[in-house]
Write a structure and sequence with these properties.
Chain A has about 300 residues and is an alpha+beta fold. Chain A contains five helices and 13 strands. The N and C termini of chain A lie far apart (about 65 Å). In chain B, a hairpin with a 2-residue loop joins strand 8 and strand 9. Classes of the chains: A alpha+beta (about 300), B alpha+beta (about 325). The interface between A and B is large, with 74 and 77 residues.
Chain lengths: ~300, ~325
């Protein structure tokens, strides 16, 4: 069967079904349900639509905003311990294009602004508890990254290092959870030879887990093109170059939580004010120049320090 | 208390600026959805009484009732020599706490927790596990822990509620709560390093070392509206956890460097909304958590191991 036809049929059928069910319970974010699209976890199209609603929007030409608060710890393998380092504000903007009923594309920009641990202020210097030295934090800014979402999965393109692997979804008690993991490694652009103080070692390793959850009622409401979704993440990453760890064993552990909003107006003022003042380029995407990531930016603005 | 409160005027002004600069205008929900952001001014978290009630509603209940929390976890083995993560298992976690009020005005809880090990990413119970480092197959021990007792004093909300537990090793540290849109987040972390009840000289195979490391992060997220409503005694919060812990005794990993990395998610539920398959597995593998009237003595996975198992000689000397 043509998936486009079957999708339209399903949506059309939903109208009749809802009428037969009578009044459904109030939604998390919307009014009464007029059309339902049941979330069948064995249906790749249903899962794709649910995923897009959670991480972005089914609409064409609309931006989606996600803000998270992260807490970063340093792992010291010498004594097998974790130490509180700092916090961060993550801001992720995705600009969505609806290609057809079963294909959606987004262009992503993301940044992280560092703050002292559990405080709302910019981290201007950081005393590295492992080296005892005071270093200059450097926020990261990434993008654009283009991703295509289809029933077969997410295609991040050959240039992307992150290849997300979808895990088993859960639906319990009116909530949908969508966990995603990714793991990759690549030759460190901040090489130990050229950047002995700043390099974490010959390879960058990245292991992450992110989870989105949303109300099943919203996901199944065919009138909603997007939903408010909570997110939770963990990242285990080799040291950022600005920490100046000199190849020291260990890694950064980031634990965070946040929300994919229905619109930008929902972003709370505390993170928004700090982000606008310190990462203004995230709010002027039309003027964005080239492709940025934390390693390119670091090499552009910093010089290798002697050990 | 740091309030992370939506300032709608400020945010709306910013949205306008952003919209003017981009073809991707964040539309004010052209589909006509009503915004349901609760005015968080109704929830004055600077008031200790409000904070006390909010915390109990989210983590437990203000009513005398049993509180159930169900989670799904995914666990990897972190191997520091290669800085790699190997999928290990999934977990079905079940936590139940019995909430009561005493005549002196205290809120008390008795908490039990159980976990059933599943094959990674499946709903198939893991009965045995093949240790990839030794090649031997070991029997999996699904764990049941408790009771952990806590006393919450409405007049001393920052007091240590779990102080009466002599066996306790984990004392969580609260991180500032935050309100985002319609949701309040309550995170906490803990980091402990304590003398392992299973010492390696006596338990060379089961002991992960002289000391046991346990680092965790747990987050509860609930609707602000539920906390503002005096008629709601228990907020059916979502919860997420992350744990980095040393090897479990039954894995027989010895002192090999590394940790288990667990990442989980779930929510509080009423008993009758817990999926039937999960209830059946609880009944089969950790039935003691359903027979709490017969459970008074504290136990955990270490005590269980020491009471029921015998030390194994080092590998190669069996």
């Amino acid at each position: 069967m043509d998936p486009l036809v079957s999708r339209r049929s399903a949506l059309a059928g939903g109208l009749g079904m809802a009428a037969g069910l009578g009044t459904l319970p109030p939604l998390e974010i919307g009014g009464p349900v007029l059309a339902r699209e049941p979330l069948d976890l064995d249906d790749p199209i249903a899962k794709m639509r649910a995923k897009v609603k959670m991480i972005g929007t089914l609409e064409d030409g609309v931006a989606s905003h996600r803000v998270s608060r992260g807490y970063v710890y340093g792992y010291n393998p010498d004594d097998d311990s974790f130490t509180r380092f700092y916090s961060m504000i993550n801001y992720n903007v995705t600009q969505w294009t609806r290609v057809n009923d079963v294909t959606h594309r987004y262009k992503m920009h993301e940044c992280a602004l560092y703050t002292p641990f559990d405080e709302w202020d910019v981290l201007t210097t950081f005393q590295n508890p492992f080296t005892g030295e005071t270093v200059d934090p450097m926020s990261y800014v990434i993008g654009p990254l283009e991703v295509e979402v289809t029933p077969e999965g997410s295609d991040t393109g050959p240039e992307a290092t992150i290849k997300p692997i979808h895990m088993d979804w859960q639906v319990m008690d009116g909530t949908v959870w969508m966990p995603i993991q990714s793991e990759f490694s690549f030759a460190n652009p901040i090489s130990p030879e050229k950047w002995p103080k700043e390099s974490s070692g010959p390879e960058v390793k990245w292991n992450s887990f992110i989870l989105f959850s949303a109300a099943l009622n919203d996901i199944e409401n065919a009138d909603l093109m997007k939903v408010r979704a909570l997110n939770h993440y963990q990242e285990n990453v080799t040291w950022a170059p600005w920490l100046e760890m000199q190849g020291r064993p260990g890694f950064s552990l980031s634990r965070g939580f946040g929300m994919k909003f229905l619109n930008m107006a929902e972003i709370p003022s505390e993170p928004l004010t700090l982000l606008q003042a310190n990462v203004p380029e995230m709010f002027d995407l039309d003027s964005w120049q080239g492709t940025r990531n934390n390693y390119r930016d670091f090499m552009k603005v910093r010089k290798p320090k002697p050990v | 208390m740091n309030k992370f409160v939506v300032d709608r005027r400020n945010a709306l002004n910013s949205a306008t600026t952003f919209g003017a600069a981009s073809i991707f205008t964040p539309q004010a929900l052209a589909m006509g959805l009503p915004s349901d952001i609760v005015d968080s001014a109704d929830l004055d978290l600077s008031d200790p009484k409000v904070r006390f009630q909010a915390k109990l509603k989210v983590r437990g209940s203000l009513a005398e009732e049993n509180v159930h929390r169900v989670s799904t976890g995914h666990v990897w083995m972190y191997l520091p020599e290669t800085h790699s993560y190997e999928p290990f298992c999934s977990l079905e976690n079940y936590q139940v706490s019995e909430w009561t009020h005493s005549k002196d005005g205290m809120f008390r809880s008795r908490m039990f927790e159980a976990a059933i090990y599943m094959k990674f990413g499946t709903d198939e119970v893991m009965e045995t596990w093949k240790n990839p480092f030794t090649g031997e197959t070991v029997e999996v021990h699904h764990y049941a822990i408790g009771p952990m007792k806590a006393t919450y004093n409405p007049n001393a909300i920052d007091s240590d509620a779990g102080a009466e537990n002599a066996e306790r090793v984990i004392i969580a540290k609260d991180i500032n709560w935050q309100i985002v849109a319609d949701t309040i987040y309550m995170p906490s972390d803990s980091s402990v390093f304590y003398r392992n009840p299973l010492q390696p000289d006596k338990w060379p195979r089961a002991s992960a070392g002289e000391f046991f490391g346990w680092d965790s992060f747990i987050m509860f997220a609930a609707k602000v509206a539920d906390l503002s409503d005096p008629g709601i005694k228990q907020a059916m919060a979502q919860s997420w956890y992350q744990e980095n812990i040393r090897w479990q005794p039954w894995m027989l990993m010895g002192e090999r460097p590394g940790r288990l990395v667990a990442r989980g998610f779930g929510k509080k539920m009423r008993w009758d909304t817990i999926p039937v398959d999960r209830v059946k597995r609880i009944e089969k593998y950790v039935p003691e958590v359903l027979d709490r009237d017969s459970w008074s003595e504290f136990k955990n996975e270490f005590l269980w191991y020491m009471r029921t198992q015998q030390p194994r000689p080092p590998l190669g000397k069996d």
